[in-house]
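Comment thread on ticket #2218

A.B. wrote:
> Attaching the input chain for the structure job we discussed in standup.
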Amino acid sequence: MIGVKHMEDQNGMRCCPLYPIGSAAALAELGTEPEIGCSYVGKVYYLTNDIDLSDYAYGEGWNPIGSAGLPFGGILDGRNFTISGLCISRPENDYQGLFGSVTGIVRNVTLKDINISGRHFTGGLAGQVHGGIVDCVRVSGKLFGENTVGGVAGYAKNSNIVHSRFHGHVAGCESIGGIIGHGWRSSIQGCITQKTFIKGQDFAGGVVGCSYSGVLNNCRSTGTLIGKTYVGGVAGGIVNSEICLCSATASVIGELTVGGIAGLALGKWGVDKCFAACSLQGDKDVGNIVGQIRNVK
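C.D. wrote:
> Ran it. Output below, let me know if you need it in another format.
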C-alpha cells in the first residue's frame, strides 16, 4: 500500500494527507485506488525520486490512472522528478495517457521518451483534463491516435494548462496539437512546443488543434506541421477564442485554410500581439497570421 503522511497548517493542525510515491509499482497502485473503494479527492501524492516504467512496456503497456467515470481528482506533485519509459498500445481505446482523466492537479513532473498509441482523447500526461490544472509538466516522445490527440493532453475542458512543454511527434486525424488536441473553455498559458512534428487531417496546430471559447497566452511553437484543412502554427482553429502574445516559427503545410498563427478564426475571436515567421504552404486561404476569417453574427 502507498504510505501516508500528513501536512500541517501554520497552527500545527493536520490537513491534507500526503502520499509518497517512490517506485513504478507504487505509481501503478495509484490507479487501483477507486477500485478498492478509495477516493483521490483531498489527497496529495508526491514523487520521491525518478521512476522508470519500462517494466510496464509490454503488451498493451501502462494502464492509465483514472478514467472518464472515475477521474483522478487529487494532487500529484512530481517535485521535478522524471517518469520515463511510458508505453501504451491501445489504438482502439479512448482516454489514454499516464492518466486517463484528471479533474485535480498535476504539477512539476517530466515525462521522458513516451510512446503512446490510443484512439480518441489521447495525451502524454492525460487523455482528458476536465476542470483540472496542469502546471509545469514537460513531455517528450511520440503519440498516435485518431481524434483529439495532444502532446500533454488530448482534451481540456474548463481547465488551466500552464507553463508546460512538449517535444516530439504527435499524429492523428482531427484536433491534433502539440500541447492540447481540443480545448473547450480552457486557458493555455506559457506553453512551448520545441521542434515538434505534428501531422493531422483537420485542425492541426503547434499548440492546440482547436480552441473553443478559450484563451492562449504567451505560447510558442517551433517545428513542422502537416495537415489538410485548418492548419496553424499556434492553433489549427479558434472559435470564440483569443490568442495573445504568441509566436510560431514553424513549417506549416496544408491544403486549405493555413495560417502562421491560426488556420481558421470563427465567431468572436481575437489575435493580439502575435508574431509568426513561418514557412507556409497551401492551395487556398493562406495567411501569415490567419488563413481564413469567419464572423458569426
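A.B. wrote:
> Thanks. Noting for the ticket: The chain has one helix and 34 strands.
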